[in-house]
Amino acid sequence: MTTNISFLLNGDKISYEIKDHWTLLHLLREEMGLIGTKEGCGNGECGACTVIVDKLAINSCLYLAIDADGASIETIEGLASTNGTLHPLQQSFVDNGGIQCGFCSPGMIMSSKALLDENPEASHDEIKHALAGNICRCTGYVQILESVEVARDKGGQNE
Amino acid sequence: MNNLNPDTNREFSVVGKRIPKLDAAQKAMGRAEYIQDIKLPGMLFGKILYSKYAHADIVKIDTSKARALSGVHAVLTGEDVPKK
Amino acid sequence: MKQFKYLSPTTVEEAISYYGQHSETAKFVAGGTDVIVKVKEGWMEPDYLISLKKIEEMTELHKNEATGDLSIGALVTHATLEKSLMIQNEYPIIYDAVSNIGSLQVRNVGTIGGNLINAVPSADGAIPLIALDGVALLHGPSGERSAQVKDLFIEPYKTILKPGEILKKITIPPQSPNTGSAYIKFGRRAAMELPLIGIGVLLTLEDDLKTCTKARICLGVAAPTPMRAFDAEKLLKGKKITEEILIEAGKIAADESKVRDSVRGKAWHRKEMIRVHVRRMGLKCIEIIKNNR
Fold first, then answer.
1. Which residue among C130, C146, C172 closes a domain?
2. Chain A contact for B57, CB < 8 A?
3. Does the residue B4 lie in any domain?
4. Predicted local confidence at residue C290, as pLDDT
5. pLDDT value for B10
6. A42 touches chain C (CB under 8 A)
7. Does B25 reside within a domain?
8. CATH of region A2-78
9. Whole-prediction pTM value?
10. Which range of residues forms the domain containing residue C236?
């Protein structure tokens, strides 16, 4: 019950022999060692496991790895540049108090990236609607929304 | 405006400045390690079994079936807690 | 999670043939946002998962401009419907319902068909399709058959689908001019929850923009399965629509419902909300009709 799949991961072409029942989350965390994506609930209710597949934010805990065959996947590990410069969204979360314990942060940042990539001028309400599936226990959400809005206003540029 | 400092010309390096959390960047990159992320060779996984009954008196806990399951290394109860 | 073998047919016939080979040990899966949860929690223990994702005809969303029919493939995701300008403009009740299902992450993957087949009493996706007189096309080992969406549901978690049958698509018949529709998912939270009550209303008016020629009042979480408030609809048909008559319709709909107490809400509260929102959604329909003229 194994299958060979290949996909783009943060721009790199990857081939992998997977078991059919693996979720994408399992493949990323347990098999490939990419621990940036978190497991919060395991059933699609918290968004901590959010990654981007073919430009869409999805819960990787409910997405079978086998469905990633041929897809382009973005995870939190792909955002910062190789020389360590943070992606504007990451920098904004750091600068604007969007991170406390940090467990929800990769998911929040990936949801935000999927939104701003598609809709760079997303309104406050559109941001809230897009992030409604990402739960945070620490911040009360205000600074998370501010972090996304500041990044949006900077037009995706770091200062 | 700094009410605590009588000498208004002093410039502070930390007080009154916005200091980001030390580990915010690590967390933003997904590089901060949480318990869930730690993998040690030969590590075991524990799970807690809670009593269904509040304030109950423990008469006996029979762990024999649990210990006999394949892959189970140990079953710990209050009996295993050092008395001292 | 139970280990299964994943099969990926590219046609409906192939999918049904896979089921024929493995029968009870196989389960169909669409987006997976319900099925994968069930497999993880042990409610389903399939040896085979037959994915419908690669069956192209099931992923199509198509409005036939000549006939006015709307065809929604069962594998169309809620997000696709939410983002479609055609759906937003011409079928606002569908937009209202699907845009608040789960979260964006769930909507990007979860499908309109999967949601129907899951057959929960709250099915936000079912209410608009019932209000629009949608017809479901089923395909199984014995061939094709169709059924009104309103007749799909037997009881919670159970539809009329026979083993090996697949919901292929839903067809919405042409809408009359002067039609407005709206849905509200009423609950305690703004997102990420099942509704306490779901109320969908569709009204068609004559050219005088007052007299009702068609009314649909559809309720979710008001009975074990999605329901229509037929008596309330009869009240409105042929009458001039005023706020008063909408209030009356709301009362009748609330009385027709079979709401119950549950952990999330009380029956009396649900009845109140039916009264309130039949009126509000009715007024919204009128506004949409007037704005479209």
1. C172
2. no
3. no
4. 95
5. 75
6. yes
7. no
8. 3.10.20.30
9. 0.93
10. 179-292
Q: What's the average model confidence in pLDDT over C224-241? A: 97
Classify residue B68: in a domain, yes or no. yes
Q: What is the mean pLDDT of residues C83-88?
A: 98
CA-nearest of A56, A103, B52 to C108 is: A56
Straight-line distance from the first to the last Cα atom of chain C, in angstroms, rounded to the nearest whole number: 55
What is the CATH code of the structural domain delimited by A88-153?
1.10.150.120
Using the predicted structure, report yes or no on whether residue C269 has a pLDDT greater than 50: yes
Please name which of A52, A12, A47, A46 lies closest in space to residue A32, comparing C-alpha atoms.
Answer: A12
Q: What CA–CA distances, in Å, run from A155 to A93, A119, C64? A: 15, 11, 40
Instruction: Say if residue C190's pLDDT is above 60.
Output: yes
Averaged pLDDT, B16-39: 93
Please report, for the domain that includes residue C193, its CATH number: 3.30.390.50
CB A79 within 8 A of CB A113: yes
Does the distance separating the beta carbons of A38 and B29 come in below 8 Å? no
Q: Residue A91 and residue A156: Cα distance in Å, rounded? A: 10
- Judged by 3 or more CB pairs under 8 A, whether C touches B is no
ipTM of the modeled complex: 0.96
Would you state the pLDDT for residue B20?
Answer: 82
Mean of the per-residue pLDDT values of chain C: 96
Do the Cβ atoms of A44 and C105 come within 8 Å? yes
Q: Which residues of chain A have pLDDT under 50?
A: 159
The answer to whether residues C123 and C138 belong to one domain is: yes
**In this structure, is residue B54 part of a structural domain?**
yes
Whole-number Å distance between alpha carbons of C108 and A63: 11
Kind and range of the H or E run holding B38: none
Q: Note down the domain range covering B51.
A: 42-84
Beta strands in chain C (DSSP E): 5-7, 26-29, 48-51, 61-63, 70-73, 135-140, 143-148, 153-155, 158-159, 166-172, 179-186, 197-205, 212-220, 227-228
